[in-house]
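Handoff note, outgoing to incoming analyst
You'll be picking up this chain. Sequence as last confirmed:
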Amino acid sequence: MRRLMRALSPSRKAVSKLAGGTGAGQLVLIAVSPILTRLYSPSDLGVLAAFAALVALVSLLATGGYPQAILLPRERAEAVTLGYFVLGLCGLVSLLTLLVVVGALLLTRGDSAPDIIWLLWVPLAVWLVSSNQVLVAYANRLGQFTLMVTTTILRAATQGVGQVAAGLIYPSAVTLTGVTTVASATANYRLTRNFLRDAKGSPKDLRALREVARTYAIFPKYSLPASLLSQSTLSGLPLLIGLIF
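Most recent structure output, in case you need it:
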């Protein structure tokens, strides 16, 4: 038992560090929530809930379930190539999301159009959230838990302070969702630099990308449908309430 505990000691430290960082980030958002409820209307906060639910669902689809596979390759170059493939997939789905959003706004007429203008933030948020899953998975592969924790706290702090500041200037659903999106970009900055610094010299031609996609095709085949079903139970309620009311 002592040998087992010694073997698990590094894992326990990593889990404790990640859990602590996640908890600290949540505490920041909880701390500012009483202020946000006084700056923004219930309708604005409802839009934020629908926005987060929609982005979470589409972002999961954008990754294709591949981020989990980044931990598996023995060779660093293969993991980097897989990362490039998933980032490209995220970009493609984000672009398609932009086309759908623009089309929906063009088809919307009358007084209801200003109420859904916040949808323009969705494509960028999908790109940032889905690519974050890839970058975090790669940092996890390298055991860079401190980087993962600091980016989580940075994102929460940026989001909390930004939402309060925006609420003092111009409280609306558009600014609320916009600040949330920008906060995701701050979290991705250091993770992107970390990935690009370690990715130098790795193959990223079309043939290599197809090969890694085929090698780990089991993830979109089995993991993605289960994840989408699970996320749908979480995202479905805010979206359904928004549609009804």
